[in-house]
């Protein structure tokens, strides 16, 4: 069985790649997501939970920008130049994973005040929640596609054994 480059990245150099590329960004994003729920329900826009949310949001975005740049230079460009992608599932898994940079970096820019200027705190929180939702969707799509055997959709075959 073949695996996507996304899954291969996580499986190689255990446990470090799993920690660097999966655990850290997901823990930061989940911290933001869970604290966001409590902030939204409690409407406490200035307490300790909001500070944790803000710090985790800033770190997550800038951390993922680093991951994006690193993987784009060391994986995406070389794989594309050499024609070594393992089919559409492989490209989509990596693409969805890397697209997480948009909402996570959006959260960071919102938190440091470069995005959402002129908006009220409640309006910023709504944008923040949308970014969190987008990240959760793209991250889960990447995980699902990443776990597929890329041979299933390669070369026009059904990939299903009977």
UniProtKB/TrEMBL annotation:
Record bears the keyword Transmembrane: yes
Membrane-spanning segments: 16-40, 52-72, 92-115, 127-148
Keywords of the record: Membrane, Transmembrane, Transmembrane helix
Keyword set includes Plastid: no
Pfam families in the record: DUF6803
Name recorded for this polypeptide: Permease
Organism of derivation: Thermincola potens (strain JR)
């Amino acid at each position: 069985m073949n695996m996507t480059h996304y899954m291969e990245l996580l499986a190689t150099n255990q446990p470090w790649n799993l920690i660097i590329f999966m655990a850290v960004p997901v823990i930061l994003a989940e911290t933001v997501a869970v604290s966001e729920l409590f902030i939204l329900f409690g409407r406490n826009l200035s307490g300790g939970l909001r500070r944790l949310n803000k710090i985790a949001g800033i770190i997550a975005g800038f951390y993922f920008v680093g991951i994006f740049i690193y993987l784009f230079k060391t994986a995406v460009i070389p794989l594309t130049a050499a024609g070594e992608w393992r089919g559409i599932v492989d490209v989509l898994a990596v693409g969805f994973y890397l697209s997480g940079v948009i909402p996570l970096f959006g959260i960071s820019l919102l938190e440091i005040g470069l995005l959402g200027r002129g908006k009220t705190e409640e309006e910023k929180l709504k944008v923040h929640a949308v970014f969190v939702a987008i990240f959760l969707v793209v991250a889960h799509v990447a995980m699902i596609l990443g776990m597929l055997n890329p041979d299933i959709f390669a070369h026009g075959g059904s990939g299903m054994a009977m």
